[in-house]
Write a structure and sequence with these properties.
118 residues, mainly alpha, 5 helices
């Protein structure tokens, strides 16, 4: 197994555990926070990230086969979808800030920061 893939999976599982633990300790905060999520933005951002990841993997595969021109095309698509993701995240965060929502130091954030040694 590729070490970087294993490490990524480990980090994702760890993040999920931290989020569940944080939600369990502060169920009301979790429910309130979840009620402010925009499902449309979330779905679009997920699509942008999955598409971008697919294009990056395709670009690497083509590069390894020596097809530099097509690899470059898919790399540009990767960047394009990455920029779309960042633009939508900027819009999402600006709307939350306008409404007065800010990141607070909740239990889940504290545990996650401790695990990352912040």
């Amino acid at each position: 197994m590729n070490f970087s893939l294993y490490r990524t999976d480990y980090c994702l599982v760890l993040l999920l555990i931290v989020l569940v633990a944080g939600a369990h300790g502060n169920l009301e905060v979790y429910k309130d926070s979840a009620s402010h999520l925009n499902a449309t933005y979330g779905a679009m951002n997920t699509m942008f990230l999955l598409t971008s990841g697919f294009f990056m993997a395709t670009s690497v595969k083509l590069f390894k086969k020596g097809n530099i021109k097509k690899s470059d095309f898919y790399l540009k698509l990767t960047v394009y979808f990455g920029v779309l993701f960042l633009l939508l995240k900027s819009l999402e965060y600006s709307e939350k800030i306008e409404k007065g929502f800010v990141v607070e130091d909740t239990c889940g954030i504290k545990v996650f920061n401790k695990l990352l040694l912040f």
